[in-house]
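Let's study a protein:

===
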Amino acid sequence: MYSAPGTPPVREARSAPGIASPQGRRPRGRTGPSALSVPEAPPPEERPTHPGRAHDRPTPEGEHKGAQSKVTLTAPAPALPAPHELRSFSLSYAAEPTAPAADPLAGTVPLGSAEELRELLGTPHPIVIDKVHDRLTDDDVAMLARSPFCTMATSDADGNCDATPRGGAPGFTHVLDRSTIALPDRPGNRRADSFHNILSNPRVGLLYLIPGAMDVLRVNGRAHIVTDGPFFDAMTVKGQRPKLALIVRIEEIYRHCPASLKRSGVWAPETWTGAEGRITGE
């Protein structure tokens, strides 16, 4: 713009970027980085990195890629609870509905009476009935002297039952007289389930076996427990005198049919299985 001599030159007014000049035109001048302009900010999640940082240095090929590097801002991961705090955590979820289990007794027909039982099994032979007695015979005493093992069945006053094994050297059962026997108590697991039962219900059933023999001796009667007696010394084994003994007053005693022993093959070595389920002879 021309100005008169002696007067300072008048500079052309420029408006701020984005604002039109008085003539309605944008100001003239250079454009680019040196121009008075405000660059648009990149999205918050993708901002250019600052030059000079390690990831903004020239690549091995000599190309500077700092202007192209971007940093994605993410929220920090939540801190995990300490191991000792995990114990207080609990998970709850709605259990999926399951179909009711099938009744395993569906279709069974219960026995109705003792008369029905007798009708199904028939009448026992008179010999089976007549062999029951209440005093030990010589054969009974001889079998007790040979037997190292018996099972003892008891129940408490409410009818809760237990069957437990008893054993020792052959003849461990001490015969006091023809109607009384004594079984010493040997160290075990100290549960004393049978003794607890007998304290409230004295009924007891014994079943004696002899390994390899097809003989079964059943003894039923009433029992009580004693802590000492003149026969305790005779029941001492390896210097250990029993602390308790079971006294059984015999009410029934008889030989039982050995059919179950034959069917099971309990004394047949070729049918025995070891702890791993193999035949011991293999």
Summary: The longest strand covers residues 216-226. Confidence is low (pLDDT under 50) at residues 15-24, 29-36, 62-67.
